[in-house]
Amino acid sequence: MKRGHQDTLHGGGGWYAVEPEMERGKRKTTMRAAEEGGEVDELLAALGYKVRSSDMADVAHKLEQLEMAMVSSAATNDDALLSHLASDTVHYNPSDLSTWVDNILSELNAPPPPLPTPPPLTSADAYDLKPLPALPAPADSLVLGSDLQSEVTPSPRDRKRMKVCSSPPSSSTTTDAATSAAAALPVVVVDSQEAGIRLVHALLACAEAVQQDNLKAADALVKQISVLATSQGGAMRKVAGYFAEALARRIYRPQPRGGVGCCSFDSVAFDDMLHMHFYESCPFLKFAHFTANQAILEAFAGCRRVHVVDFGMRQGMQWPALLQALALRPGGPPSFRLTGIGPPQPDNSDALQEVGWKLAQLAESIRVDFRYRGFVAASLADLEPYMLLDQDADGGGGGKDEEPEVVAVNSVFELHRLLARPGALDKVLGTVRAVRPRIVTVVEQEANHNGGTFQERFTEALHYYSTMFDSLEGGAAAAGADDGGPDQALSEVYLGRQICNVVACEGAERTERHETLAQWRGRMDRAGFEPVPIGSNAFKQASMLLALFAGGDGYRVEEKDGCLTLGWHTRPLIATSAWRVAAPAEDPLSASAAR
Amino acid sequence: MLTREEEEEEQEEEEEEEAKGRRRAFSVNDNVDLLAEILGRLDGRSLAVAGCVCRLWNAVGRRDSVWEAVCHRHVAGGGSSAAGGGCSTRSVVAALGGYRRLYRLCIGPALDRLAGSAGGRGSTTTTAEAAAAHHLSLSLSLSLFSIDCYERLGGRQQRPASLLFLCKPVDVS
Lengths: 595, 173
Known about the structure:
A: alpha/beta; Rossmann fold; nine-stranded mixed sheet; 25 helices; B: mainly alpha; 9 helices; elongated; disordered C terminus
């Protein structure tokens, strides 16, 4: 039977016959096979699919397009199309993958008009009319199916016909095996930009569905998001992936069981490690450290005894630079005391102490008188003023021969966590005020992830983290692909955890409660602090630092009312501000005491 | 066509001149401090190349004082601190690893980066480097240097990476 087909298909469908030839191995006709130029990929042939090796990339590409087309048709609720495909009115044997995909694509693209004339070949009668139905027409007479024809090739005839109809020029191509018929077929244009817009819409729609508690719709949308995300590249795909995962967590686990619901790795060491990679891969943390250090340095001018309280000690990367700057300042280094605050370590290792040792080593080598104290606190609200105040053995409580120490409090990305529990921030700011610091440096994310409804928060977060991921991509791209290796990937994980927390957690668990600079300004004002403008030195240093970064072109340092912000292109991402205790205006007694 | 006498005279004159020349000839290799002074006026790359000439030049080229001059010449704010803060700067930098290391890890790559971005706009390398040096401050370089030094401290043998953003991935220490 195959034989028969072959013979009749002689001219046009010649190359279809190639495949059975190949299967049967050496024949005389293998010569013809060689002529036609079709070497079937052996691996796929073993599975029953016949794809020419030269066509492989093409077929793969078209399969992707087909998937996109089917998904997007699902998205547009094109039931007619789907049911048409589903009811399988035209059974194409998929073993010839290339043409199978072509046909389906062409069907989706341009439903071919009915054949004007039936094909001249007699065996074609069996396949009369059907293959070219109008889209909605189911036509069960379109049997086709396996009964009528033998294995390989109903199809050659139909395909041939399909080709003829869907794109006139292709009629000539069927005789030419070399030109893949696909070239003449109209292709589903997967406009990745359009897919990107759809992706964003899907994300926002899903957030809305979650907000309205419409979990079924949300679930469907999450799946759609995952598919759409694959059509994107780079930053958008990763952001969409993280947001989709966070949404899924929110949908399927509305009551997270205790602990930090979002993270599978709760260990502080893991978090620190991610933090280090984030430090190295992009300039945000460096910017934060340098600008805060500059403000502290200026505030410490002329003081002989200084004390810095760091609310988030971690690996202490901020302090070597300050130590060096103090060592080299005109007048020589002061006597420097550092209090580092960190979370409890589950494995009883004393990371805080280790960091202290390293800093002490560095300080000793550059001859700065250095003292260190580490405090373990699950939350900053557990701190009391007496813990932070000077507790020198010789100083005792009251009289000191030396001048009193000048205190600076430094908080990098720590204050926003306190907003998760009511009253915690006020307590901490009260503690800070009680220590009477010369300067308080605060670095926070410049975004509002704490106000309004879930949907608003989601939208804000989507924009913010898209920009963050873009900046990571930009930095990695400019630095060369190698550099983007582990640092970039782990930084993305670091940001992904934040995303998860912002989207999926609620209540006391949601610790990533970012607020904008304006909001923090309000809070600090209400707590009795007044702003200290950050000088131009910090601005210059920050600008220079960014100029050194390979991907530094996209970053922007801006000054806003005495505070510095670092952003990517037009969007500010983090903000550094400095504060001091406001002299109370009303009470003259306390005002003079404060001085 | 010279007579024999005249030839002899000429020979003597030549010999005398050679002797005089030898007395007058000056080899910089004999005067190491001068050599150091000269090498200190080079830019980093040229100095490194000069260190490949011979062992003497290599030894002189490794002196931290030479690299100190190079560093100060190539960053803004270096000269101004020479007066009072010179000594303390020197001791701090020595403690952190020395000027040669400072140049290699921080200043050199930074200048390259800045010159590269400026050079992309069509200026020649020398002017670009000069422009870059004008902006790069010693204090920033020292800050980065101190962070790198800090990362190399400590028991764990982690590869310090905070300066990788300046350098190519392959770090030949």
